[in-house]
Write a structure and sequence with these properties.
Elements lengths: L8 E3 L15 H5 L5 E5 L7 E7 L2 E7 L1 H15 L2 H4 L2 E5 L10 H21 L2 E5 L5 H9 L6 E4 L6 H10 L2 E4 L4 H5 L4 H7 L3 E3 L12 H16 L7 H7 L2 H6 L17 E4 L12 H7 L6 E6 L2 E4 L9 H19 L17
Parallel strand pairs: 2-5, 5-6, 6-7, 7-8, 8-9
Antiparallel strand pairs: 1-2, 3-4, 10-11, 11-12
Helix pairs in contact: 2-4, 5-6, 9-10, 10-12
């Protein structure tokens, strides 16, 4: 993002920005939003990475080494992991190596960083995540860097080789399938084959971005259509399985099946209510089909996280939505002005053309 606040790659639904020098950690930001998993990790080598530190309208160049990023990771994990009565968990994350180089020194440095990141995560009981696997990179991640395992979950996983799939099965590594992501346009995640082989596959959004949001109802439908079309078989990906992929399968892939993913005695009370008494989700029969095929994110009425009501009747009483949106808009304008990227929001919609 072009400032010192982008010194950590952070994924998992909420983006938390960090200050490389002062390491200001917004302890309350995640607790009020209801997040469960946040992944933090270093940027891609070689290091140090160059950033511009914007303060009082002036930019100062900063060079941020891996060690500084790693220290910030460790501080985040120490402060946050297991916080909010065990609700907040951190995962570690590293960029995917897709064979960009075979330079021995670079490979050795990636392996060193991988060892440190994995040791840190395992020491604190954190999960491990990588985003962007494809075409042999999973087998390489295991053979060269020892990154796979039942505590790991990988995103996209397109155009996988037989060795990739064998590695996922053998190591118990889970997969996050993002059906609306650009990666799924450029490649294909073999979801039915993975599930039938015993791999836990979750549905993700890869959002937000200019061309994809975070409405999981939309992603369930996209997941079904992509794989039905690929196999030319409309029987694939029935609604019950799609719903499992965003609930119990997701909990299993994140190592939280004992706590989340289904409504059972002893599990944490993470619940949403969905209004199906709408014209687009009527008539009142086949509730699972209607929930998966016709409902949308705006139909969610109430949200309960660990027994705490965070939204009731689409009202979030503890957050000022208007103020948050205004602040986000102001920060976006400031970022675009500083970076010189304001021209990107002009957004050619492609009127009258089939290709941009």
């Amino acid at each position: 993002m072009g400032t010192e606040r982008a010194t950590l790659l952070v994924t998992g639904g909420t983006v938390v920005t960090m200050d490389a020098d002062r390491r200001v950690i917004p302890d309350g930001a995640v607790a009020i939003a209801g997040e469960r998993i946040l992944a933090v990790g270093p940027t891609r080598p070689p290091h140090p990475w160059r950033y511009l530190d914007w303060r009082e309208g002036r930019a100062e160049e900063k060079l941020v080494p891996f060690e500084q990023q790693f220290d910030t990771m460790a501080e985040l994990i120490t402060r946050w992991h297991g916080g909010a009565e065990g609700r907040i968990r951190l995962a570690t994350v590293m960029p995917v190596h897709r064979g960009e180089t075979d330079d021995p020194d670079t490979i050795a440095e990636i392996a060193r960083q991988a060892r440190l990141v994995r040791e840190l995560g395992r020491r604190h009981g954190c999960l491990f995540h990588q985003d962007g696997h494809c075409s042999g990179s999973i087998a390489e991640a295991e053979a060269r860097f020892d990154l796979c395992g039942p505590d790991a979950f990988f995103s996209h996983c397109t155009d996988l080789t037989d060795a990739d799939i064998d590695t996922l099965v053998r190591t118990g590594t889970s997969v996050v399938h993002n059906p609306t992501a650009i990666a799924q346009v450029r490649g294909h995640c073999p979801v039915p084959r993975l599930i039938e082989a015993g791999v836990t596959v979750m549905i993700g959004s890869d959002g937000t971005a200019p061309d994809r949001g975070t409405d999981m109802f939309r992603h369930m439908v996209m997941c079904a259509r992509i794989h039905q079309r690929a196999a030319r078989d409309e029987r694939l990906m029935p609604p019950g399985k799609l719903l499992e992929m965003i609930t119990i399968d997701a909990a299993r892939g994140l190592g939280l099946e004992a706590e989340l993913g289904s409504l059972e005695p002893g599990k944490r009370a993470d619940v949403i209510t969905v209004d199906l008494a709408t014209p687009h989700a009527w008539p009142p029969n086949m509730p699972i089909h209607r929930l998966v095929w016709f409902a949308q994110g705006s139909d969610v009425r109430d949200v309960v996280v660990d027994g705490r009501v965070l939204m009731r009747g689409r009202v979030v009483p503890h957050l000022d939505q208007a103020a948050i949106l205004a602040e986000a808009a102001a920060e976006t304008e400031a970022m675009l002005a500083r970076s010189g990227l304001a021209h990107l929001i002009a957004g050619d919609p492609g009127w009258g053309r089939v290709r941009l």
